[in-house]
Amino acid sequence: MTVDHAGVVTLVNAMAADLLPEVAPGVDLAACRVPALADAAAAGSDAFETEHHGRRLRGLRRPLARSAWYVRDVTEEHARTDALLAERSRTAFLAEAGSRLGLSLHREQTLRTAVTLPVPYLADAAVVVHRPPPPAEDQPHWIRYATGDPGPVTGLAGWHTVESVPGLVEALEGDLTEPSPWLDAELADLAEVLPAGFGRPGTVLISPMPSAGGPAGALVLARRRERPGFDKREIGLAREFAGRAGAALAAAELYGEQAHLARVLQNSLLPPALPRLPGMTLAGGYRAAGDSLRIGGDFYDLFPTGDGGLFALGDVCGKGVGAAVLTGRVRQSLQTLRLVEQRPRELLELLNRALLDAPDAARRAQFTTLLLGALRREPDGGLLIRVAGGGHPAPLVVRAGGGVETIRVGGMPVGALTDARFADAEVRLAPGDLLLAYTDGVTEARGGPTEPAMFGDARLRQALATGTGLPPAALVDRVLQLVDEWLDGQPHDDIAMLAVAAG
Questions:
Q1: Nearest partner of 300 among 275, 320, 277, 280, judged by Cα
Q2: Are β-strands 404-406 and 396-398 bridged in parallel, bridged antiparallel, or unpaired?
Q3: Coil, strand or helix at 81
Q4: Which residue of 97, 172, 278, 291 shows the fewest CB atoms closer than 10 Å?
C-alpha cells in the first residue's frame, strides 16, 4: 500500500487488503484501526510488528515518490522460531537433568536434584512423594522445593493427604496414563506439602516416576494462579523428566543396597582386632590389592587357647571379592576345626580335607597357602611357638641381638591336593625376640618406574634387622611404610603381616 505526503492511504493491493481490511484508500494511516501501524505512522517509524486477526504481521516502510508500506504474514515464521527455541530450551533442560541426576548415586541427593531442577522452569513448586526403602515405616514421605526456598524441605505425609490429591495414589502405584493438568486445586488438598503463603495453586500436574523395579514415586508440579497452565509440550517434558528422575532414584536405591551388602561383606572379612593374650604381644598389618572394598585374599587371625593362642596367616589364590569369599570360608573352617584340633600340622590336614570336600571345590580350583602357629608361654617369660606350613613363605625371627633367622617349615598349599603333605617346626622366643609371618605381597612388591625390581627377601631382612628392639606394632608399621615407599603408587598384591613377641 502507498501513502501520500500527508499520510493518507492512496493504494492498497489485494494482499494488503486481506491482511489489513481496516486500511483502505483515503484512510489517515496515523489514525487507522491497526494500533501498531498507526503508532508507527504517527511516530515516523519505518517498521512495525503485531498480532492481528490471529496472524503475526510485520511491516516495513520504504520511501518512494510517496511512501510505500510492505506488509507480510510472518505467523509461520514466528511459530517455527518459537518451536525451535522451545526445543532448544527443552533439550538444554533434559541435558542438565541427565547430567545432574547421573552424577549422584545417593538416594537423598537424587531426591534433592529431582525437586530443584523443575523450579522455576516447569513450576513454582515441585514435590516428590515417595516411600523410603525398608526398614523404614511404610508411610509416604515428601521432599519439596519452591521458588524462594533456601533449600529442599522434607516431611512425612499422611495417607489422608495422599488420597485427597486426585491422581496421586494412582501415580504412586505406577499408573503410566498420560498426565493431565489439575485445574483450580484447593489449598486444603496440598497445604501440608506446599510452602506457607503459596496460596491456592492455579494448576497442578502429577506424573508417576516409573523405574524398572516398580514405581519410584510421584512428581507433583504446582503453578501459582497468575502463571499460565501447562501446555501439551510442557506435559510431555514433565513426564519425560519424571521418568528420568524415577530411573535415577531406582539406580541410587540399588547402589545403596549394594553398598550396604559390600559393607557387611567387608566387615565380616577384614582382619579382626587381635585379642590380648597374657605374656605376649601381637600386631597385624594389612593392605588389599587396590580393591575399593578393602578386602582381598590375604588374611590373619588369632584364637585364644587354654595355654596361649593359635595364629593363622594365609594367602588365598586370586584377588578381590572372589578371593575374599574363599578367605571367609578358610577362616570360618579354622574357627570350627580348632575346637577339635589345636596342633598346627594336624589342623592343616583337617582344613585341607574340609576345603576339598566342599561341593564346588573341583569347579573352583582354589587353594590357599597358610601358616598356623601354636603359642605357649614358658615360665621364664619366653614363648614357645610350633609353626606348621602349607606352602607359605617361611616366617622370620628377629633376635634381640639383631640377627634374623628363617624358620623353614615348607609344606604344600592347602585345598589343592587330597594327599598334600605338611610340615612343622618349633622355635623359642626369648624376651626381646620377635617372629614375623608375612605374605608374598611384601617381598614381591615391585617398585615404581625408576626401581622396577621386587622388594625382595634381602630388603625385608635388612628392614627387620635395623628395626631390632621395636615392639611388634611399630615393626609392622615400619615394614608397611618401606613397602609403600618402594611401590611408589604402583599396583600391588594383597599384603598381610603378623608379628609376635614375648612379653
A1: 275
A2: antiparallel
A3: helix
A4: 278
